[in-house]
Amino acid sequence: DMRSKIDANDYKDYILGFIFYKFLSDKELDGLLADGWTKDTLEEYLIEDNDDLYNLCRSRYGYFIAYKDLFSTWLEMGSDFDVANVSDALSAFKRNINENHKKVFENIFDTLDTGLSKLGESSGARTKAIRSLINLINPIPMDDKQGYDVLGYIYEYLISNFAANAGKKAGEFYTPHEVSLVMSQIVADHLKDRETIQIYDPTSGSGSLLINIGQSVAKYLKDKDKIKYYAQELKENTYSLTRMNLVMRGIKPENIVARCGDTLAEDW
Question: Which segment of 129-143, 169-183, 234-248 scores lowest on mean pLDDT?
């Protein structure tokens, strides 16, 4: 019933934005639990005013999410959860990005943030819509163990299903997975003797082609951190998607150089 109120293409951006927020949120939480913190102590100490945890997270992850703003906390809030929790969390995220990681994380949730108002006529309707959306997303596995690119996979699925509604062929949006894999293997074969590799996609879209090339190339390299990813994308929401996808694949922020721009009008 949410789909009927929202343009299909916008809806895709909300789903993907929440998936990425959950990914970042879980990454921070899992890391701190692995350090020996408990949920109870984090509830008390994972706050912006606690300099030690604040600085640790910002230097380790490039961002900081307070306990009250974690995706898992939203789920635990049950009926106390409100759309305001999301907008507060997104503005806090923006405020707390590590300076060195600005290029990767800056404005990455803008599409989601500005789109919250479209999710219902009233605050209550928006809250209900978002609650059902985060419950829908919660079971999606997001760790590297999947062996495939979760965000890209869901993006492809949504685009191929929503493209008809948008009155466009899906090919305008993304390189079909099979084509992308063949291209990746050809590129990797040509590069197999290199020590370091730079990959550039001038119309990066969801980032899936970059990721496939990176994975194919990584088979020949001793160190996958020796791959640098360059991406340019014209549409702002898709530019965010490129960055989200690269981050979700465990690529270090310093190996991501992405730009929002028109590749045809001003070549990078």
Answer: 169-183
